[in-house]
Amino acid sequence: MKTLTFVACVAAVVASAILPAFDVIVAGGGPAGIGAGYAAAARGAKTLVLEKSGRLGGMGVSALVSPFSFCTVSPIAKDIAKRIGFEHSVDFHLADVRAYDLLREAGADVMLHADVLGPVMEGSRVTGVRVQCAEGERTFRAKVVIDATGNGVVAAAAGVPYEEGRSGDGLVQPMSIMFTVGGFDPARRFRCYSEEDARSKRCLVDGRKWEDIVQDEIKAGRLPPEVGVIRLYPGREKGLNVVNATQVNGLFGSRSADLTKAEIAARKQAAQIVDVLRRHLPGYENACIAEMPAVVGVRETRRFEGVDRLTTEDVLSGRTREDAIARRCSFVIDIHNPAGAGQADGHDKAVTGGARRVKPYDIPYGALVPKKVDGLLFCGRCLSASHEALASCRVMGNAMATGVGAGAAAAQAVKEGIDVRAVDARKLNLFK
Ligand SMILES: Cc1cc2nc3c(=O)[nH]c(=O)nc-3n(C[C@H](O)[C@H](O)[C@H](O)COP(=O)(O)OP(=O)(O)OC[C@H]3O[C@@H](n4cnc5c(N)ncnc54)[C@H](O)[C@@H]3O)c2cc1C
């Protein structure tokens, strides 16, 4: 009798842990995940978006990455961005709430504080995900899983081969804490958008170049050499600047021990940077940190092997694709120096119109489809691309566009009862 009761209890626990199946599960609720969840649900798929933090929006919201770069043709992503407050700069106070409402309106379920641990596999097919929820571990089944976690948590655990870092030394782009400063005179708000700005006449402080002032602070040991350039963007509010300056090299955003070091080192740099602003910028004598992000900003981790790949040559030559899911992508190859300060070699040339500026190129659907694993797509900053190509296509608007492509393809696969790799991307109607 006791044994029977025990068996019944175990069966009840197992039944409650394995929940009804979804058509599409999206792991991660950043720009790519929002795009994927919206597109899948709006096209009739029973969709669940799982986000490990308490907020949708990814780097834009949780890491205070303010400038929203939309450098592609994707009418659906453009509309999403506008409706949630990601246009031009991110409204990081309320964009997550709007994104939640938008996803719900489209028919998607959304679960926050749901940390996707890995896939459920049947042979080489992903059939669901294991999730650490607040109440314990649960399993969710789906016909298609879209990995929009940025780091490719599902794809990595499913065994899809990946690369990390640039060729040669294997280093990835640095992690950074972006933060906001307030407490300065809004009439004298200082702007410096780039390394090039910092060494130009546009950013003179008492007749001196901003870059020279920062270099003097480094020589005096009051700033670490990796900081190199202190960029100040105008925030959405008149009295705020967004600061993009901290930089931690040689660490990987796919490893907790490295993330820990990056969080602490970059936050210490933020305090040093505010001290420099106070001492040098007129009107900033009482400047202070207004907002610190919830997490350190991660630019680049795993790049997975897809059936197709966005190559450096593709972005430099402006290659077009029949199976495009994002067209005319045009953001420069923006490589923050993995081994030193400021931008990596070639970046300035890109900004000034030299060799590293891309020619408008397409992102192929095949860059979202893993080579060997079925039932799975990836999108956003973990798609199949070279280090240089990712440095162009990773920006938020374009990441969102790849999410829209993944969500639309997943819904199509469900409708037709085929695997995602058999979807004809030309028929997805993404550009009307
Ligand atoms: C410092 C910095 C500056 C940048 N500057 C710009 C800029 O000027 N303009 C621009 O457009 N872009 C910029 N970017 C790039 C841009 O922010 C990212 O490339 C973009 O956000 C990628 O979108 P994503 O959805 O692929 O990933 P992310 O934004 O990283 O979102 C991934 C989401 O998945 C969630 N997640 C992760 N793991 C799990 C899990 N196991 N389970 C559930 N959820 C999970 C995360 O919490 C997050 O919400 C910058 C990035 C950084 C770090």
Please provide a written account of the structure.
With 432 residues, the protein is an alpha/beta fold. The chain is globular, with a radius of gyration of 22 Å. About 4% of the residues have low confidence. A hairpin with a 2-residue loop joins β4 and β5. Flavin-adenine dinucleotide binds next to α2, α3, β4 and α13. The site of flavin-adenine dinucleotide (FAD) has 38 residues, from α2, α3, β4 and α13.
Could you outline the blueprint of secondary structure elements for this entry?
Blueprint: H1 2-17, E1 18-27, H2 31-42, E2 47-50, H3 59-62, H4 75-84, H5 95-106, E3 109-111, E4 115-122, E5 125-133, E6 136-147, H6 153-157, E7 162-164, E8 179-182, H7 195-198, E9 204-205, E10 208-209, H8 210-219, E11 231-234, E12 241-244, H9 256-280, E13 288-291, E14 302-304, H10 312-317, E15 324-329, H11 347-351, E16 361-364, E17 376-378, H12 387-393, H13 396-416
Parallel strand pairs: 1-2, 1-6, 2-3, 6-17
Antiparallel strand pairs: 4-5, 5-6, 7-14, 8-12, 8-13, 9-10, 11-12, 15-16
Helix pairs in contact: 2-5, 2-13, 4-13
The chain binds flavin-adenine dinucleotide (FAD).
Flavin-adenine dinucleotide is lined by residues 27-33, 50-53, 58-60, 63, 65, 67-69, 115-116, 148-151, 153, 176, 178, 297-299, 380-381, 394-397, 399.
Brief sketch in words of this structure:
The chain contains 13 helices and 17 strands. It has helices spanning 2-17, 31-42, 59-62, 75-84, 95-106, 153-157, 195-198, 210-219, 256-280, 312-317, 347-351, 387-393, 396-416, and strands spanning 18-27, 47-50, 109-111, 115-122, 125-133, 136-147, 162-164, 179-182, 204-205, 208-209, 231-234, 241-244, 288-291, 302-304, 324-329, 361-364, 376-378.
